[in-house]
Amino acid sequence: MYSNAQTNKTVLDRYLALPQGSRVQALYIWIDGTGEGLRSKTKSLEKKPTSLSELPIWNYDGSSCYQAEGSNSDTYLKPVKMYPDPFRRGDNILVMCETFKYNKEPTDTNHRKMCAEVMDKAKDEHPWFGIEQEYTLLAQDGHPFGWPKNGFPGPQGPYYCAVGANRVYARDVVEAHYRCCLYTGIRISGTNAEVMPAQWEYQVGPTEGIDMGDDLWVSRYLLERVAEDFGVVVSFDPKPMAGDWNGAGAHTNFSTDAMREAGGIKAIEAAIDQLSKHHIRHIKAYDPREGKDNERRLTGAHETSSIHDFSAGVANRGCSIRIPREVAEQGYGYLEDRRPSSNCDPYSVTRVIVQTVCLKE
Predict the structure, then answer these.
(1) pLDDT value for 165
(2) What is the pLDDT of residues 307-329, one digit of tens each?
(3) 250-255 and 335-337: which strand pairing?
(4) Which residues of 331-354 are buried (b: 16+ CB within 10 A; e: fewer)?
């Protein structure tokens, strides 16, 4: 048993019940220099803020987050969105932040700033996104949660959307995370057990513009915090287990006003044509290592397309871009880009889609 799992989490409740007066706790969240790790720290505010303008810019040690040298380590946190805090509750808040270097330039992993600029240019097209975030739960020794310690579970087949203690692992983590997302106002739209045992998925959206990136990052933070309470580790690795096991993606559903209107299939087909011309650019934007992570996942097997080729089809989960059958039949709706990896930066993913489809860049 690992030490984090040994602490009695319920003891904390007696302290959280103590009155805190008019002051509130603001937990600032940011993306570190890996482009996939999240960090956070808490600041006391004299009163509950009613707008972002009331939240101070803060700083942190960038040299301990792979974002600065120790000799010049102060890195700035700029608040961009507030959420109610499901852990401390009351008037306490979570604050998603952008990160900036000492010279006020964005850090290398601050992809939000450019994403926001792109979304502003395309705002008249009202780009909507829905991301299907897959992840794997691990024990603290790094082994998939619930798997035999000296072997493997039975082959894939009975685990997807399953029920039963011999098929589904750590549903309590999933349910707790779902409720936290609802509490914060994140537009979580569903969840399900995935094809590989100990692998799950939840969906966020439809959400417009920059909100997709903000909400998905904060939902990931909530998931890791919840799993921490249960003594379980969350992995967003796109291929956590080698061999005949499904990988994990972040399938991205996308539409514009023109696609959602009657006859929108023509706009969807035009978007797919644009996407086909920029396959390599998208692959580089779809994981933190410019395609190196996705190489292990996008093999053409396990419901994926090949990383080397662009493809599209109706109801085909082996394509780069899938048009849902319902969309093809009714003649309008959305498309699904199945290429983004589970550890992608949603700011990068949504930005490049809008650049390609809406701005024709």
Answers:
(1) 94
(2) 999 999 998 888 999 999 999 99
(3) antiparallel
(4) ebbbbbbbbbbbbbbbbbbbbbbb
314 is written with which tokens? Answer: 């109706």
Q: Do 122 and 47 meet the contact criterion of CB atoms below 8 Å apart?
A: no
DSSP H or E stretch at residue 134: strand 128-138
Closest CA to 26 of 72, 69, 87: 87
- Are the C-beta atoms of 236 and 36 separated by less than 8 Å? yes
The residue whose two tokens read 């100990």 is 198
Q: Percentage helix, strand, coil, to 5, in the chain?
A: 30, 25, 45
**pLDDT class of 9 with cuts at 50, 70, 90:** confident
Q: Can you give the pLDDT at residue 205?
A: 94
What is the reported pLDDT for 4? 63
Largest CA distance in the chain: 61
323: phi then psi, degrees, rounded to nearest 5 = -95, 115
CB 316 within 8 A of CB 323: no
CB 240 within 8 A of CB 137: no
The answer, as to whether pTM is greater than 0.90, is: yes
Residue 296, both tokens: 């292990």
Q: Which residues pair with 67 in a beta bridge?
A: none
Q: Report yes or no: 220 and 344 within 8 Å, Cβ to Cβ.
A: no
Residue type at position 317: R
Residue 331 confidence (pLDDT): 97
What DSSP assignment string belongs to 296-331? TT-BS-SS--BTT---EEES-TTSSEEE-HHHHHHT
Is residue 212 within 8 Å of residue 188, measured between CB atoms?
Answer: no
Report percent pLDDT > 90 for the chain. 90
Cβ–Cβ contacts within 10 Å for residue 314, how many? 12
Tokens matching residue 1: 């048993």
**Which of these, 178, 227, 225, lies nearest to 201 by C-alpha position?**
178
Q: Report d(CA 256, CA 127) in Å as an integer.
A: 5
Mean of all residue pLDDT scores within the chain: 95
Per the document, the length of the chain is 361
Q: Which amino acid is at 315?
A: A
d(CA 257, CA 224): 34
DSSP class per residue in 124-180: GG--EEEEEEEEEEE-TTSSBTTS-TTS--SPSSS-TT--STTT---HHHHHHHHHH
